[in-house]
Amino acid sequence: MTHEDRLVDAQVEDEEQAVEAALRPKELGEFIGQPKVREQLDLVLRAARARGGTADHVLLSGAPGLGKTTLSMIIAAEMGAPIRITSGPAIQHAGDLASILSSLQEGEVLFLDEIHRMSRPAEEMLYMAMEDFRVDVIVGKGPGATAIPLELPPFTLVGATTRAGLLPPPLRDRFGFTAHMEFYEPAELEQVVRRSAQLLEVHTDPEGAVEIAGRSRGTPRIANRLLRRVRDYAQVKADGVITRRIASAALEVYEVDERGLDRLDRAVLGSLLKLFGGGPVGLSTLAVAVGEERETVEEVAEPFLVREGLLARTPRGRVATPAAWAHLGLTPPQQTPSGGSGGPGQQGLFGG
Ligand SMILES: Nc1ncnc2c1ncn2[C@@H]1O[C@H](COP(=O)(O)OP(=O)(O)OP(=O)(O)O)[C@@H](O)[C@H]1O
User: Fold this and answer.
1) 25 alpha carbon to ligand 1 midpoint, in Å?
2) Distance from the CA of 64 to the center of ligand 1, in angstroms?
3) DSSP assignment of 45-82, as one string?
4) Which residue stretches does the UniProt record annotate as biased composition, category Gly residues (predicted)?
5) What tens digit of pLDDT does each residue of 132-162 get?
6) In terms of CATH architecture, what is 186-253?
7) What is the pTM of this model?
8) What architecture does CATH give domain 34-180?
């Protein structure tokens, strides 16, 4: 199973981009949740506008689908500035960055997604561009190479990263404002669902929105995606109105349970509980039992299970928490005096 196969994955799919664009809030007042980020950003932008200048560089960190691209567009809109969108992996040479920077207009917002994945020479060029609005373009090679300084118009860099800790400190320090985006509360996701339903002209009753929000893993992108699938179901199987019953029946078809776990998550948890007595069990052994690649279990399923407090990664292997037993409606085995579960899948038997 890959990221793309999953309804509850937070990565954006290609065909999803147009509909996402239609659902994006356009101004700060419309942006739901993240109260601290909104309040702080509002101050930064108001102050910049009052000075008649350009806003400070902004770093947004947080998991995929939490609204970093949306917020960068809002920053541009609130500043009345154009926006240029690119990403770290697209900038492999310093020259790529130089050509983007030299074509920016005064006050323009440059959104650099996945900024931690930029090449080293490009990153070093960015330091000077951010601080002095200047770059040195190197012409020629070897001992005859010369650096030609190029003045840039003032601009606002909005960098986005899933992990701010991956950024080298000199880059991190050059941002005037850093915001960490948290996962959304269910009540906030409910608002996201209600707002999107209105834009998509689908009728959702309050309970229907609650049901979708509760299964959206704290992520607006997933909430919007589940809403679209529930809308399909409501249109095909009912009168088009999303009620709690319709939402839960639709998401049962798509195998997304009431806590947002999908088939893969439940397969991992189910194996851990039923075959290995709740662990500890090694990652490789667990992956074989589920019939998936080790990386899929580790990178695709586990982060959410850990965040939900259903699974723990310990030095001795993966361990299910009491909440995992409760979620799958199973009873944990009696503890043996040695502290192990006594289940059939102990680390010693299967290695891993
Ligand atoms: N606070 C919010 N209020 C309403 N809708 C939101 C909010 N945040 C995100 N969304 C919606 O969720 C979708 C994903 O948001 P966005 O593309 O901005 O996420 P992202 O963090 O940039 O993701 P990635 O890191 O994968 O690029 C968009 O359709 C957007 O409309």
Assistant:
1) 9
2) 8
3) HHHHHHHTSPPPPEEEE--TTSSHHHHHHHHHHHHT--
4) 339-352
5) 999 988 888 888 888 888 999 999 999 999 8
6) Orthogonal Bundle (1.10)
7) 0.87
8) 3-Layer(aba) Sandwich (3.40)
